[in-house]
Q: What sequence folds into this?
């Protein structure tokens, strides 16, 4: 029996010759949004986060209606309770790692803000990095800070846009293990079969702006097995 | 050396710079963040003082601030004296004249901030005000400092608008550039030379500071 949907979305979006026309529901803790470059993965994530407005659509996250164009409802990004981590961590270069993590907690009381920041610093083993600014951090450290920043306000859904591509295998395994331990649903964008296979979650297969299939990784991506083997061999 | 003119010039440049920064920061923020059709006309209006001869700008300001317009009449009603030929009138003229020198560097500074940072701030719940104060301003500090320096130096060297709007009242509206004009009219070339040299020194010092900042900034970015 399926879990109740975390996220349910119907989206119609057009820009130039590209169009996105999707309907899907997320029921698993981890879902990989898989598709080739140009399939519309990042656009879909931006629409979910409220950074891009679709022509028509409806997005529900848990009990909250985030978007309902027929009723002119569109919550701003800051009220959608989503965390978003990009491939290139968008960290504020003038702030330390600690202040970057606490950026989204400005409405919390100071003790709560400090406690939450400490908790995340400890969780991602960044206690020694607190006073460093982003340019003083390695790529892996920057991504850990970006994840902690996105998780700090306790989002109801975490959107990850290929954030681990530039990480070495050990850092990548560390981060995925930490994320699995946190009780937050994840929508993880990838164009790599190996990536999707390793995460072994539900897959949303996006092809040219349409959801072509949805289901367990090993069922949906069986057709890409040859490509996976080629990747593993290389 | 006309010390009164030095005092009036420095005071005018300082007040104009402060007023301009207070106006230009929100205006620049609106320009970089709006999708309004008014953006192009507003940008054109803020740039217009660069192209207009100062005497044209001064003439319109003189008319606008005079007792024949409602603005001028309201001012007289509130303060008991007209705006033209006063220090306040001079500040208004200087602010309008130097507006592009404040707005354009700040717009350039705000525009150079990575949009991914603005979007991340929005996702993390930052209001427009917090995006301005917590992201754009700190990341555009050098552009704002450059704008302040340009405004100050440009105001110090003003002549046409100052003469049209402020006239030549010692201790009130006579600035260094007006003092040079007076000294040349009186054939006091040695005094005019000293005053001119002072203006050259102020301008060249400002430009050296500006380029030193830019050089230091470019060096820091490439470290």
A:
């Amino acid at each position: 029996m399926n879990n109740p949907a975390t996220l349910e979305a119907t989206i119609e979006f057009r820009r130039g010759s590209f169009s996105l026309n999707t309907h899907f529901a997320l029921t698993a803790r981890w879902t990989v949004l898989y598709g080739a470059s140009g399939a519309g993965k990042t656009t879909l994530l931006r629409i979910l986060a409220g950074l891009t407005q679709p022509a028509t659509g409806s997005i529900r996250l848990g009990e909250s209606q985030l978007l309902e164009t027929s009723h002119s409802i569109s919550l701003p990004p800051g009220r959608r309770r989503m965390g978003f981590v990009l491939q290139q961590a968008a960290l504020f270069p003038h702030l330390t790692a600690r202040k970057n993590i606490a950026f989204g907690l400005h409405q919390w009381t100071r003790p709560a803000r400090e406690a939450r920041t400490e908790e995340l610093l400890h969780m991602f083993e960044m206690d020694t990095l607190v006073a460093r600014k982003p340019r003083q951090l390695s790529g892996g450290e920057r991504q850990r800070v970006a994840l902690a920043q996105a998780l700090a306000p306790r989002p109801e859904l975490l959107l990850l846009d290929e954030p681990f591509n530039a990480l070495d295998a050990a850092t990548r395994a560390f981060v995925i293990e930490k994320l699995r331990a946190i009780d937050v649903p994840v929508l993880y964008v990838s164009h790599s079969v190996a990536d999707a296979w390793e995460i072994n979650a539900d897959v949303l297969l996006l092809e040219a702006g349409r959801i072509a299939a949805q289901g367990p990784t090993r069922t949906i991506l069986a057709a890409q097995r040859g490509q996976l083997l080629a990747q593993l061999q290389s | 050396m006309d010390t009164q003119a030095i005092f009036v010039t420095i005071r005018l440049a300082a007040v104009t710079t402060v007023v301009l920064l207070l106006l230009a920061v929100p205006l620049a923020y609106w320009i970089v963040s709006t999708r309004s059709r008014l953006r192009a006309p507003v940008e054109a209006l803020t740039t217009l003082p660069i192209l207009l001869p100062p005497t044209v700008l001064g003439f319109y300001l003189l008319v606008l601030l005079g007792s024949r317009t409602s603005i001028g009449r309201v001012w007289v009603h509130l303060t008991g004296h007209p705006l033209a030929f006063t220090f306040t009138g001079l500040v208004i003229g200087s602010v309008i004249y130097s507006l592009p020198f404040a707005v354009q560097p700040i717009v350039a500074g705000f525009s150079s901030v990575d949009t991914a940072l603005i979007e991340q701030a929005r996702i993390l719940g930052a209001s427009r005000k917090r995006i301005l104060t917590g992201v754009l301003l700190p990341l555009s500090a050098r552009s704002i400092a450059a704008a302040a320096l340009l405004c100050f130096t440009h105001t110090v060297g003003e002549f046409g608008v100052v003469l049209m709007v402020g006239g030549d009242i010692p201790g009130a509206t006579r600035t260094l550039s007006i003092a040079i004009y007076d000294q040349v009219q009186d054939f006091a070339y040695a005094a005019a030379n000293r005053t001119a040299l002072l203006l050259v020194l102020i301008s060249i010092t400002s430009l050296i500071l500006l380029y030193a900042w830019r050089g230091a900034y470019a060096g820091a970015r490439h470290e």
Notes: Chain B has a mean pLDDT of 90.
